[in-house]
Design a protein that fits this description.
Blueprint lengths: L2 H4 E5 L5 E6 L1 H22 L8 H9 L11 E2 L6 E2 L10 E6 L4 E6 L5 E6 L4 E6 L7
């Protein structure tokens, strides 16, 4: 069997590539590596959304020991989106990513994709943001 019999590019009537076909023999031999590669590419193309860690948020509120009442406000310094209550805002401008008992609560801004960090200190709150791919190495 020639290599081209195991791996075929399929074109439509206009000559545009629309699919790729692998033989069963090639798939059986390499599916572990192929699936891992395909999933990592798909994760970039279509990131899977994990549920908001609301239990972390509830723990954070339970052990609240800051000198001010719980604050639900979130502000994105990148696109200026803000809400007075990220949890009850029907527009859901922010998505909770994590809440740590030490005071760091992280959100994803649904408007611009920035990561918003809400840092709770003993007597004040700071917001910071970063944009995916904005860090230089
Ligand atoms: Zn934003």
């Amino acid at each position: 069997m020639a290599h081209s019999d195991h791996f075929r590019l399929l074109y439509d009537a206009r000559g545009d590539l629309y699919s790729v076909m692998l033989s069963a023999a090639l798939w059986e031999r390499g599916h572990h590596r192929l699936e891992a590669t395909i999933h990592s590419i798909l994760e970039v193309m279509e990131p899977s959304v994990r549920p908001e860690p609301l239990a972390e948020w509830e723990d954070f509120k339970t052990y609240w020991d800051f000198q001010y009442p719980a604050c639900m406000k979130v502000v994105c310094g990148n696109c200026k989106t803000q809400t007075e209550n990220w949890l009850s805002d029907p527009a859901k401008p922010f998505r909770l990513k994590s809440a740590q008992l030490g005071g760091l609560v992280v959100f994803h801004c649904n408007t611009c994709g920035a990561t918003v960090r809400k840092k709770h200190f003993k007597d004040h709150i700071c917001f910071e943001f970063s944009i995916a791919g904005s860090c230089l190495k």
